[in-house]
């Protein structure tokens, strides 16, 4: 049966905005037309095969095929593996930090780690851009570009999340942070403004982008830059320009450490606002529509914002300006109305990013997580962000009045961890995620670890070390059992015994010992004696001791040991012959070493196991026994020790 | 200057990392060998300064040599040649061009199916080199001596032990020491035609695998071995059998040890736990042969940690003057600079 492997790019559409939940594939082979069967394999993989097979053809031209279908995991591409590993380190540091600060507040540490996550995303973006420039293949470039889009969105979301939920903001006054966020992620017109200022020529309004740049700077809250740009206008000395410039200069800026209370600030701000408003209603700027537009923006006129909305790709560009000109004293928790106002500027369908940002501003983290899960990054961002928020104590999700926060966090981590466990190399990273969510995680880890293919002892030992680290004795048992059986199969009873001994498993050791004895009967050498120092295989171990004593010519001790082995009746049937024949040389020694009593015992065993030893050998032994009895019947052998 | 660490993620778990020696300039090129991945390879890298800033160096890949199976060991046989052992039982001798470091590695010899149980391939777990000779050990309990000049197998000691061998080290031209899964250390005379070890002794205490062995560079009778559970044992070969000291060192398996090439009193070790330690071995090696020093207390040994503990195993280290390379299971390599030696 042929086995083909195919992965469809559509399986994991790289767009962040995928709406469809169900995908349809056409199976490429005719043989699947009837009776298709399906079976799960390890991880996110399953096989499709024909349920009824045509058996009368030869293998080569058979129609029967097995299709292996797996999800294409974008995180497993080499460039994103860096992100996976680095994030794993940050994740573990976060778990450690939260363990250490069970009781105390540790916001600073969390903020540091949140920034670390962001810098990881940033590095990843840089790598992606670098790779995009180098790559020549169109398809690959596309996928790299879609990764870039995805991670830009993630960076943007994470940053806003950090401002609203993780950062320590004095007085909770969020405006400067939001402005910074807008400037960082949506740097519109910045370059035009910079080049205009650099050129520093009167009459810059000839540049078609001039007014866009000025308004852009106002909306971003860079009032100083906007003023400087206005100075470059050829008629900047006119009264209208001066009028606007005065208003812009006089605009009160709130600073927590500025020495005035927020109440005082509000009063002065309202005063300024009323002034601007009267300037507008008096129509003193009516001759300069652009200046009037700026003034309308500054008094927070919704229609003005609507007018400029089309110039921007998203409503996020406007968010900072809107807050700046309508509610500069807004606290973190008061962003919902601003979000609704700005989002309302955009008619039509909302993208995932729109929904996420708005939900963040509204404080609806449940919605945020829900939407993050739709991002095609295999759960990377949803998992890490949720975990971050969970540790910061900012996550509280209720489902029918029951707090399910921990469950949500755990289930995301479990999913992500299990995903990584599939990968040949990333399994150890995956394991550390699973271990962070006991007890369920460890149960899963146990099942997944047991299924990791073991190609070498080095890998086996690594899995054992991990299993021991997380306290998974069942995995240790399975892996050792597997290795022991494998060695046993290839006829190496010594190694089998070693692996059996590692888990202190009596069954494994017994099996290996039995094979060692059988092989000895067949002529193979015994395993090294030191192998059995701690083995639970009494018979084999004692028998080896006997050999050593015999080799060292300590016949008296050897004889005693052998008789005790015979009388203890530990021996399996196949080994009686060997044991009994081993007495022969001891019966024939110059000075007797086996006493009359011993001889009787051996005789008894010989007769009891007459099927083990027959014919000439039995007769020979009987003869030797009789002779020994003859010379020891009246002799009392002294005990040596 | 204080110790400075730079990490780079390389998207492969690196099992072995080795500097390429330079004669007159600071080392800057190195080899890595990956493991436990769908596709493994031996790579050559160089460090490059970024934006003319001398202090920031980033590794850049120069060439890749794909191999089937995990790379289990890389050792230099001379300045530009490495012996690479693989988990599919093969050993390869590769050469890098002395002038054009970015040209692909050239294969000089391949010893395929060197290690196998019955007809099935099994892992070649370790190797060591000595003036062009290579000794390899494997899970099949075999010790092979290869001649790196002629490319043949000069001697093969088979069925020597009752379980797989995990570490090996040349003591002198005709003697090698091996350590196995049960912690038994055996010394073999490779010139003698016998399958019996010259001497054997074992790790004290529980049965643990001996994962790595090194010989003291100036006092060749002193042998150190690291175990699977993180302990370190020191033997004085003039008085076999019992280790002169045993240290409970790392909290899990010792993965590699190296005496600093410039300072024989300095030992660098790394472990599965994710730490890299710098030991001052002076007290251990200077004492007279017959005094047993119980060294459970590693504080007396002057141990310092070189990097903050990583969350994943550190598989390999290699130092050259003040620069130490580390390779870890978090698919990253680290360069520690300004190590005092």
Automatic annotation (TrEMBL), chain A:
rRNA-binding found in the keyword field: no
> Keyword set for this entry?
Membrane, mRNA transport, Nuclear pore complex, Nucleus, Protein transport, Translocation, Transport
Give the highest taxon in the source lineage: Eukaryota
Species the sequence originates in: Pieris brassicae
The molecular function GO annotations come to: structural constituent of nuclear pore
Q: How does it assemble?
A: Component of the nuclear pore complex (NPC).
Instruction: Spell out the GO cellular component terms annotated for this protein, sorted alphabetically and separated by semicolons.
Output: nuclear membrane; nuclear pore outer ring
Instruction: Summarize the protein's role.
Output: Functions as a component of the nuclear pore complex (NPC).
What is the annotated localization of this protein?
A: Nucleus, Nuclear pore complex
Taxonomic classification, please?
A: Eukaryota, Metazoa, Ecdysozoa, Arthropoda, Hexapoda
Q: Record's Pfam families?
A: Nucleopor_Nup85 (PF07575)
Q: What is its main location?
A: nucleus
Q: What is this protein called?
A: Nuclear pore complex protein Nup85
Q: Does this entry carry the keyword Ligase?
A: no
The record's InterPro entries line, in alphabetical order, gives:
Nucleoporin_Nup85 (IPR011502)
Q: Could you list the residue ranges forming a coiled coil in this record?
A: none
Which family does the UniProt entry place this protein in?
A: Belongs to the nucleoporin Nup85 family.
GO BP term, pick one = mRNA export from nucleus
From TrEMBL, chain B:
Spell out the SMART domains in the cross-references.
WD40
Is Repeat a UniProt keyword of this protein? yes
Pfam families (UniProt xref)? WD40
Gene Ontology cellular component list = nuclear pore outer ring
Report the locations given in the UniProt record. Answer: Nucleus
SUPFAM superfamilies for the chain: WD40 repeat-like
Task: State the UniProt keywords alphabetically.
Answer: Nucleus, Repeat, WD repeat
Report whether Membrane shows up as a keyword of the record.
Answer: no
Specify the superkingdom.
Eukaryota
PANTHER family under this entry?
NUCLEOPORIN NUP43
Spell out the protein name for this chain.
Nucleoporin Nup43
Question: Which species is the source of this protein?
Answer: Pieris brassicae (White butterfly)
